[in-house]
Design a protein that fits this description.
mainly alpha, 2 domains, two-stranded parallel sheet, 10 helices
Length: 291
């Protein structure tokens, strides 16, 4: 409430946007596409890659194609998709998606793993995430200061390196994981996440013309929500799929599911770091040419 009142009193930015009407057709088709993807991934935990998964995935592809057509050819639009002609913006979108996918996804995997494999209580499983979340929140202003002083590349790529270290440690040291080690690794991951996350969207909004900045913000907010939903659905479904197996104990099956998730997140973190490095090299090259 305090932030709402202060925003109304002190924010005086002039609204920017496009002159096209809102496209309800684009909204509906995009919503159906995203819901279908989440539903398809969620079905993996119950039926594996069965008919329901492929049917929902086909529905998602059809409606996403319909969204692109309606959005680009109608008299109104939901987003100006021409912003994706800017290659660094596409790379920033991938980075933003992966960061949120890893952050939300592993925040779900850790409590499940701690309870089923380490046999810790639910309160311990929840408290393991607290230090990382708290420290990450205090890191964000410092990350913004670094971006103002040295440019976006420094905090974003530094965050990517920490993200790779944090996620990789879960897979490398899985046999030796304890609640303390998990807490430390999650702190490293969260510091990396907070270094990169806000600075990524701040940088992306500067890659387009001012009138397209609202489109970028809207797209990134949608990507953030979708990445979180997909991350939790996919990683939870993976563990559930392993737990449904017939061989070994429930603890062993959960361990195997956790191992798959940790490896997946580690690979995704490496891809994210490579995307960051490529992105800022392209931006720096463009700046040097323009000068």
């Amino acid at each position: 409430m305090i932030s709402l009142v202060c925003g109304q009193l002190f924010i005086r930015n002039k609204p920017l946007g496009n002159d096209k009407a809102f496209s309800y057709g684009s909204l509906i088709t995009l919503a159906i596409a995203l819901i279908s993807i989440i539903s398809a991934v969620s079905s993996i935990g119950k039926q594996g890659f069965g008919k329901q998964f492929w049917l929902l995935l086909l529905v998602a592809i059809i409606f996403f194609s319909a969204f692109i057509y309606i959005n680009n050819h109608g008299k109104s639009e939901l987003f100006d998709l021409k912003v994706f002609k800017v290659v660094p913006l596409r790379l920033s979108t991938v980075t933003y998606f992966n960061l949120q996918f890893i952050n939300i996804g592993i925040s779900l995997v850790i409590p499940i793993y701690v309870q089923y494999v380490l046999h810790s209580s639910a309160i311990v499983a929840g408290l393991i995430l607290f230090p990382g979340s708290l420290i990450g929140a205090f890191i964000s202003p410092f990350a913004g200061t670094l971006a103002d002083r040295y440019g976006f590349a420094t905090p974003v790529i530094s965050g990517g390196i920490l993200l790779v270290i944090g996620t990789s440690c879960f897979g490398i040291f899985q046999r030796h994981l304890t609640p303390l080690l998990i807490t430390i690794f999650f702190v490293i991951l969260r510091i990396g996440f907070n270094f990169a996350f806000s600075n990524t969207i701040s940088n992306a909004s500067m890659l387009v013309q001012p009138q397209n900045a609202p489109d970028v913000n809207s797209i990134f907010n949608m990507v953030q929500q979708f990445a979180g939903s997909l991350g939790t659905s996919l990683l939870a479904s993976t563990i559930a799929l392993f737990q449904m197996g017939n061989s070994g104990s429930l603890m062993g099956r959960t361990y195997a599911g956790g191992q798959f998730d940790f490896i997946l997140l580690g690979v995704l973190a490496i891809i994210t770091l490579l995307t960051m490095v490529t992105n800022y090299r392209m931006q720096q090259k463009k700046e040097s040419v323009s000068q």
